[in-house]
Amino acid sequence: MSHMLLETVTIIGGERVTDLTIAEGLIYALLGFIVTFIGIVVLIALLWAVGKIMGAVRTKRSEKKTAEKAETASEEELSPEIKAALIAAIAAYYEGEKPQCEFKVKRIKRL
Amino acid sequence: MDKITLLQSRRAAVIAAGSEIRRSVAALTDADSFVELSGFSYSKNEFYDAGAEGEGVVTGFASMDGYPVYIVAQNPAVLSGGVSRANCEKILRCLTLAEKNSTPVVYILGSLGVQIGEGVTVLEGLAGVLSKASRLHGVVPQFAVVAGEVYGQSALFAAAADFTFFMKEGVLAANSPLVISAKSGKNLPKEKVGGAGALGKTNLVSFEEESLSAVREKIVKIFDILPFCNAAVVENGADLNASAPALNENCTADALIDAVFDENSYVELGKSAPEVRCVLGRIGGISVAAVVFDGAELNEVNLAKVCEFVEFAGYYGLPFVSFADTLGLKADLCTNDSLALKAAFKYMEKFELLENAKISVVYKKAVGLGYTLFAAKSQGFDYVYAFANAKIALFDDAQGAEIEFAGQKADSAKLAQKYADENADPINAAKNGYVDNIIEPQFVRQYLIASLQMLLK
Predict the structure, then answer these.
(1) Per-residue pLDDT tens for B238-278?
(2) Could you report the per-residue pLDDT of B206-229, keeping only the tens digit for each?
(3) Under the phi-then-psi rule, with left for phi > 0, alpha for psi from -120 to 50, and beta for the rest, what region is B19?
């Protein structure tokens, strides 16, 4: 095992090149991993922070809008037409839930 | 000019003699539409030694809400509406025209009998006019209004009519109520002998009305419904797909009639046998004659009522719908010793002659003879529907349990329920093809309209 930790030398084109030891390789790899993970964590944190900020802004805006709408509704009563439309929409919704006859009767032509 | 004056004075005398009956005619018909026939036809009455202007009857033609009608109005103001030969000839001429023109006839009845001085001659007159009325039966609709006292053979006009209206003061009797009362060993007022309430088993009382305008309204409604006068199918704005969810919860005869027929488009007729309801109306704009049984046990009276109604449906080409909630013949001595079986067979004969659609809806129960006559496919019904909660069986629950579970010691109600569960489910009949469809009660109207449209002739 000890020979694996030893420095090795390779001669390429007459030049002497020192190879990395396995230990050095492992250290570099570890450093690489750490840097990458730190980068990811930073990115996650950044995105989370942006999300939070955006959410807060949206909530504020919607609260403002709701408050404005509530003020408008309390100030102005719904018109009969809107009421009728709402009732019709609700009725139509529940109509869909009622059991229906298997067929629709239509006037037929006499032969 | 003298002739004109003479005519005017003669006419005034005739009108004066019949002012009351002319008011009745006017109340029934469209304003100023009445045209009198045989206006000067009257005979010298030797018995009373007096000329009776207008005789005891006024005849003519008029319109009712635009529908043409012939009118025969007995005039009680002249010789108590006493029937004479000339009187009968006058009616006969009117009825002959009604037959020729295929026009409905309205009789306003009020006569205490015949002018007895004429003897057998008046009987010949009556025979002629009554036979003409019988020939008109089924050819043109006839309506009789019992406006006052109607005694003797004039009562037969009410029997010949398809629809008889009784006014509050109307009394109808084949003999004088005094004679009937005395022969019965009782001292009864005339209303107890021949009033609408006293004729509950005769099938002679179609409607009881308070006023002539109500009579007019009903006659016009009948004209509106009958294909004889109006179209068999009309566009009356009725919703063809209207369902009635309430029927799923509780289906009474009233609720059923209300749900099935178009709004304000039906009349129920016949005061006798209220357990059998004869309804003339429109379903989805289609003219229909319907019998709605309301928990009936059959007997000669209710069978005769149905028989007459089915005959009417046949004459006027109406589709027939039976709504069954009926058992078989009532099991008692009175029914056994009656014309019930004859009436049942007569109904089958009349049913066979129906040429238009025949539909049965078993909405509660069809048991025994009730099933055979009013729901059986083999009887000739084109379509048979049963409500999901209806019962179709050979025996009624209790009777069936007694037979099927004889000797079993258990609560009779539980046994009856067991019998119903095992035998009366309409699915059994449906599996054998005797019931075309088992339906939700709330959709009965749609099924009927769809079927009637297809079967209509």
Answers:
(1) 999 999 999 999 999 999 999 999 999 999 998 899 999 99
(2) 999 999 999 999 999 999 999 999
(3) alpha
Give the DSSP letter of residue A96.
T
Q: Are B308 and B301 in contact, with CB atoms under 8 Å apart?
A: no
**A8 three-state secondary structure:** coil
Q: How far apart are CA A15 and CA A17, in angstroms?
A: 6
Q: Give me the domain span that covers residue A50.
A: 2-95
Q: What's the number of domains chain A is made of? A: 1
Q: Distance between CA B303 and CA B340 in Å, rounded?
A: 7
- Cβ–Cβ < 8 Å for B139, B166: no
In the three-class reduction of DSSP (H, G, I as helix; E, B as strand; rest coil), residue A108 is classed as: coil
B438 vs A: CB within 8 A:
no
Nearest CA of chain B to the CA of A110: how many Å? 9
Q: Bridge partners of B68?
A: B63
In a domain, A111, yes or no: no
Cα–Cα distances in angstroms (integers) from residue B154 to residues B3, B129, B187, B270, in the given order: 37, 10, 24, 20
Instruction: Give domain status of residue A100, yes or no.
Output: no
What's the pTM? 0.78
- The reply to whether A110 falls in a domain is no
* DSSP state, residue A84: H
Place of tokens 């309204």: B217
Among left, alpha and beta (phi > 0; psi -120 to 50; other), residue B239 is beta
Instruction: For residue A111, give how far its alpha carbon lies from the nearest alpha carbon of chain B (Å).
Output: 10
Averaged over B147-155, what is the pLDDT? Answer: 92
Name the 3-class secondary structure at A102.
coil
Query: pLDDT tens, B390-438?
Result: 999 999 888 888 888 887 877 888 888 888 888 899 999 999 999 999 9
Token pair, residue B434, equals 């005797």
Nearest to B237 by CA among B267, B266, B268, B264: B264
Q: At residue B258, what is the residue type?
A: D
Å from A89 to nearest chain B CA? 20
What residues of chain A lie within 8 A of the CB of B440, using their CB?
99
With H, G, I as helix, E, B as strand and everything else as coil, classify residue A18. strand
Q: Does A106 map to a domain?
A: no
Neighbouring residues of B268: CB distance < 8 A, sequence distance ≥ 6? B257, B277, B278, B279, B280
What domains can you pick out in chain B, each with its CATH number? 2-215 (3.90.226.10), 231-455 (3.90.226.10)
| Interface contact flag, B443 A104, Cβ < 8 Å | no
